[in-house]
Specification:
Layout lengths: L10 E4 L18 E6 L17 E7 L11 E2 L10 E2 L12 E12 L7 E5 L8 E7 L2 H4 L9 H6 L3 E3 L2 H4 L4 H12 L13 E6 L2 E8 L2 E9 L4
Parallel strand pairs: 9-12
Antiparallel strand pairs: 1-2, 1-8, 2-7, 3-6, 3-8, 4-5, 6-7, 10-11, 11-12
Length: about 230
């Protein structure tokens, strides 16, 4: 009989995405800032000694909002329209035998002494606010980077980017350091792959604001950016 393997939550991500909708599809595709805040038992500056020498980190985390009872050997990737089934181990679907995610992020700076203990400031995360982290490991380019690697069915999907039209008067409502991250996230087309209604207005919360947009062909037009809770 298989025995459960205990896992400890060592930290949580703090990001501008309080819901799943709008989060970048993969890490590193949008320069979205985030913080890694450690759980009380792991708020020890010694555990981060030497980490400032790395430019990138691997995050091993929990798909805490996607757990299901049981598992399926095939899944329907949204970016394939939700109609084609692929093997679960040939995808990065959150619906897996073990709901574990892997992301590579850029390390910006390290704060060792804050009211929350040591904090890592990172960018490029594709995690929802509050996502639990199981581990952090340094990214090593000499062994982890493979520029020649084949990307399977995901390659043509990731090559497609939306043309984003956001009126300056709307974009200027965001803090300056949040404007380009939002545009990067929108360029990936946040809609589920099986939704392509030309007249539909979509929306998601970001950095304390509600962002609304519509899509026509390969053009995404931002129609509203308002403080969260206000219409």
């Amino acid at each position: 009989m298989l025995q459960p393997i205990p896992m400890q939550i060592i930290a949580r991500i703090r990001s501008d995405f309080p819901t799943k909708f709008g989060i970048p599809r993969q890490s590193g595709l949008a320069d979205v800032p985030a913080r890694i805040v450690f759980e009380p038992p792991y708020r020890n500056a010694d555990a981060l000694r030497g980490i400032e020498g790395y430019s990138h980190l691997w995050l091993i985390w929990h798909f805490s909002e996607a757990e299901r009872a049981g598992w399926s050997p095939t899944v329907r990737p949204p970016k394939l329209g939700g109609n084609r089934r692929m093997g679960v181990f040939a995808t990065r679907s959150p619906f897996r035998p073990n709901a574990i995610g892997l992301s590579s992020v850029r390390l910006g700076r390290v704060e060792l002494h804050t009211p929350e203990g040591p904090v890592l400031h990172v960018s490029g995360a594709d995690l929802m606010d509050g996502t639990p982290l199981f581990d952090i490991k340094p990214y090593l380019a000499y062994t982890d980077a493979h520029p020649e690697a084949a990307g399977g069915f995901a390659d043509p999907i990731l090559q497609r980017r939306m043309e984003v039209d956001c009126p300056p008067a709307l974009l200027d409502r965001l803090p300056p350091d949040r404007r380009q991250p939002l545009l990067d996230a929108l360029a990936q087309d946040p809609r589920p792959g099986y939704q392509a209604e030309a007249d539909r207005v979509y929306g998601f919360p970001f950095a304390g604001f509600e962002v609304r947009f519509a899509v026509s062909g390969d053009r995404l037009t931002v129609t509203g950016i308002t403080p969260a809770g206000r219409e």
